[in-house]
Design brief:
The chain has 324 residues and is mostly beta strands. It is 0% helix and 57% strand. The chain contains no helices and 23 strands. The chain has strands at residues 14-21, 26-35, 38-47, 52-62, 70-74, 79-87, 94-101, 107-113, 126-133, 140-146, 159-165, 171-177, 187-195, 200-207, 215-221, 232-236, 238-245, 252-258, 263-269, 275-284, 288-297, 302-310, 316-323. It is globular and about 45 Å long. The chain starts with 13 loop residues before the first strand and ends with a strand.
Length: 324
């Protein structure tokens, strides 16, 4: 079924994120909404059966959030982490913000900076933050697209950066850039997955490599947030990648929007990153696909891949495909 989780004032709700609390067996949904010039991160707790729990949550107000919010539950600390990019005051500088949230939806501590340029020290565009949780030690690993090394800083947002955090949100080490070449590249999509079999991460992103033609890439990260191996090219002429990990086998799937064929394609990899199936078409249309997301179902051992299908001025439709 479907339902209405909350309101956004007289501005549209942006970039919702959802996390599953495996301790209380409930969800936390977060979104960005606003009234005139004031923006808020709002939320709602939802039961495992889809019933609304309590009233709408106002997590905090923030100046000009960008591209919505991601949220993950950490069973070791029994807290959620929300992460999102936003302008720092009226400076035009961006930061990646974090907020820990208790299981009852109340804030745990104060808003903090995740990126190492947080606050007035930042001088670049940052966007599209995503979170993974290490099920072994409770660490978070946050990835985002960063324009700090691009000419001017504001025109390009393409290099993927990661930051390791403890289970209570404390920075461990400094931010690491995953792709140091082609600093003028622009980004379209980024995601991260944790593999419980190998206790490691896989980051995927799309950028134009400075030449205007987008490709999807991936890079392995070890359990302590260090680069483990070279960059792999997953597919050319592709963007908006998403990743899901099979918690039973340790396999990954990466799916993306293919351009110009108007398809959603996917590849499957084992826990070491070796390709099992390569560039399989799973959706096809005469319209353009955007913003692919995916999730793994451990009960039925399958994946659900969802993409928006842009019908232009007519409408935008949400399409899904189950992959076994």
């Amino acid at each position: 079924g479907n339902g209405h989780t909350g309101t956004s004032g007289n501005s549209p709700a942006q970039g919702p994120g959802v996390a599953w609390d495996s301790t209380l067996n409930q969800y936390l949904v977060l979104w960005v909404g606003g009234i005139l010039s004031t923006n808020y991160l709002k939320g709602r707790l939802i039961s495992h059966s889809g019933s609304l729990l309590g009233s709408e949550l106002s997590v905090f107000s923030i100046y000009h959030p960008e591209e919505g919010v991601d949220v993950k539950y950490n069973p070791i600390s029994n807290k959620y982490l929300a992460a999102f990019p936003a302008l720092y005051g009226s400076t035009g500088h961006h930061s990646i913000y974090g907020q820990l949230i208790n299981p009852d939806g109340t804030n745990s501590g104060s808003l903090f900076y995740i990126d190492d340029q947080g606050g007035a020290g930042g001088s670049s565009v940052k966007s599209t933050s995503k979170i993974a949780v290490n099920a072994t030690n409770g660490d978070f690993l946050v990835v985002w697209a960063d324009g700090r090394n691009s000419p001017g800083g504001y025109q390009y947002v393409g290099q993927p950066f990661i930051q390791r955090l403890s289970s209570v949100g404390t920075s461990i080490g400094t931010a690491v850039c995953l792709k140091t070449s082609a600093i003028t590249n622009q980004s379209l999509g980024i995601d991260i997955g944790y593999n419980n079999i190998t206790n490691s991460y896989l980051v995927t992103w799309s950028d134009d490599n400075g030449v205007g033609s987008y490709s999807v890439y991936a890079r392995k990260i070890n359990s302590i947030g260090a680069i483990n191996g070279a960059i792999s090219t997953i597919s050319a002429l592709a963007y908006y990648p998403t990743i899901s990990e099979n918690t039973l086998s340790g396999n990954y799937i990466i799916s993306w929007n293919d351009n110009p064929s108007n398809t959603v394609d996917m590849s499957r990899f084992d826990s070491s990153g070796t390709t099992i199936d390569n560039s399989l078409t799973i959706m096809s249309s005469s319209y353009t696909y955007n913003n692919t997301v995916s999730a793994y179902n451990s009960v039925d051992n399958n994946y659900n891949i969802i993409a928006t299908e842009d019908h232009g001025s007519v409408n935008v439709q949400i399409k899904c495909q189950i992959i076994v």
